[in-house]
Every structure is written in C-alpha cells, then in structure tokens.
Fold:
Amino acid sequence: MLEIKNLSKSYDGKNYACKDVSITINDGDIYGFIGPNGAGKSTTIKAVCGIHSFEGEVLFDGKSITNDMIEFKRNIAYIPDNPVLYEHLTGIEYVNFILNIYDVKEDMRDEIKRLAKMFSIEDRLEEPIKGYSHGMKQKISIIAALAHKPKLLILDEPFVGLDPKATFELKEELKNLCKDGSMVFFSSHVLDVVEKFCNKIAIIKHGLIVESGDTLEIKGEGSLEDKFMEIFDNE
Ligand code: ADP
Ligand code: MG
Structure:
C-alpha cells in the first residue's frame, strides 16, 4: 500500500507545482493519474520516487519512505516519460545491469527473452542502445522494470511512443503484475485507456487533486472524456 499524504512541491519556494496531493494506492490497484500539461503529474511522480524533495509524507506499507529511501527503492520501478539510458550498453547489458542493481539472483534469461519477444525487440537486444528508436528505448526500460517484478511500478506517460501491439502487451503485463499483488501508478493523456484499464483514478488541476477514487464513481454515467471536459472546459 502506498499512501501519499499532503504532498507539496515548490521549485522556486514561491509557487507550488503540486499542493496537498493525497492519494492512496492499495495492493492490486491499477491507478491512473490524469490532468492537462503542466498540472503537476510528473512533479508528483518524481517526488514519490525520491527524485525531488517534497513537503508532506509518503508511506509505503505504513513506513515513511524518507526514513529508508534505499529500502523503498528496492521495491519500486520508475519509468520516466523520457527514459535516459546508458546508451553505450546493449539492450541486454542494460537489462542485466538493472537486475544486478536490484540484486536479482535468479537466472532471468527466459523471462527477459519472453518479454523481449513480446515487445518485438528480441533480435535487437545485442545492439547498443544508442542505435535504438525512442519506442525501443521505452521498451527496454519497461522490460528491465518488469523483469524484477516491482511491488510498485510508477510510469510517466508510458503509452506515448509505443506501437499498438506494445501498448496491448504492456497493459497485459501490468494487469498480471497487479494480480500478484503489486501496484501500478501511471500518468496518461490517453483517457480511453485510463477509463477501461484503471480501477482507480486521480485528476489533478493546477497542482491540486480535484477528484480521486474509483474510476466508475468518478466518471459517472458518461465517459471519462466527458468528465475531463467538464472539469477543464473553461481552461
Ligand atoms: P505535468 O507532468 O502534469 O505536465 P509537471 O509536473 O511537469 O506537469 O509541471 C508542473 C509545473 O511545474 C509546471 O508549471 C512546470 O513548468 C513546473 N516544473 C516542472 N519541472 C520543473 C523544474 N524542474 N523546475 C522548475 N519548474 C518545473
Ligand atoms: Mg509530465
């Protein structure tokens, strides 16, 4: 369980990019985070991942993450909107490097092969990442994250740049991860996907959470797009 409590972040000490954000993610949740550009999604995500300092509290299974950031990071994977990878490494070297960091002792060759095949990148694993397209870089960071089965997977706009098959396969993998008790938290502008795929959502506007909870309750009778337009039409 992840409890984000009154999380606030200011970059300049004056204005807040996100303010008093409170979100609770339970084991098994696929949690979508939506809001327009500049609303504060990436800021919130980076604070939760320990990249930015923040005000407020984030509890992972009841324990404040700031008390033992390393232990928290052992349990999570974060895929930024623009993954920065060690480009001189080959795809397979990168994945193995990440698995080493996470201290994965098992032989993961079959699992890496399965994921690489699923994301149609298996014949490029031996090539340096610097020759990869944006989508391929995204795929390799997704494979590295999925292979160590994080308890919490945080993704910032994961579907941007992924082809339709990879989008489908990623959703299947995320569902399977959550069936085993993990949590997924991701930001997205693809409202159709969020509506169908997430059991919970939070909507952020100018750094403030305006709605959060069960997807079905939040969207009501109409679509999530209708709800979104209702909130942001006058922007
Ligand atoms: P979103 O991910 O929802 O598009 P962001 O969290 O990236 O929004 O941005 C929220 C606000 O914080 C914006 O006004 C943005 O300009 C500002 N911001 C984001 N990153 C930084 C940064 N590193 N330094 C200063 N301001 C930032
Ligand atoms: Mg963003």
